[in-house]
Specification:
This protein is mainly α. The chain contains 3 helices and no strands. It has helices at about 1-75, 80-150, 150-160. Helix 1 (about 1-75) runs antiparallel to helix 2 (about 80-150) and helix 2 (about 80-150) crosses helix 3 (about 150-160).
Length: about 170
Amino acid sequence: HKEYEKTREEFKKTALAKFNKMKTKWAASEKLEGEAEELTSQLDQLKKEEKERLKKIAGLESEIERTQTELARLSKIELEKPEDLAVEARKIHAERADVMTRKLEAEDKIKNNINEMAKSTNQLNFACQDLKKLDDIKNMKMQALQKFDKDCHAAVLWLREHKHLFKM
């Protein structure tokens, strides 16, 4: 009877040690899930910003087109004074330069957003791969436990299903 009790105690100790290891793996898995969710929300935010920037670019392009149309119209009109024409041309040139500067800035922001989105996507993929590795390790450990001790395996499964009954 004492031998069975000793063997039982040893199994309890090994099961507790394995349970503690699995508990740390579960915590790591939950942390990675949180990181993956955060990266997904960041990616969604970057997509929204990208759409907004595309709208701004479209607005700037239409503004450039309007400016070019106005310039074409003004070039057809003969002004009495050449000085007036030169002043108008300088204004239009300055306005066009301003629009082009804003367009280049918007394009740079788009490139940066695309790079950030690619970086976030890569981070998300790595996090998903890490989660899959953790799940594979967890399943392999459970299979090893089942081969080693079916009763202990059943106890672990029961504990997982009824962990709400225990205080942690």
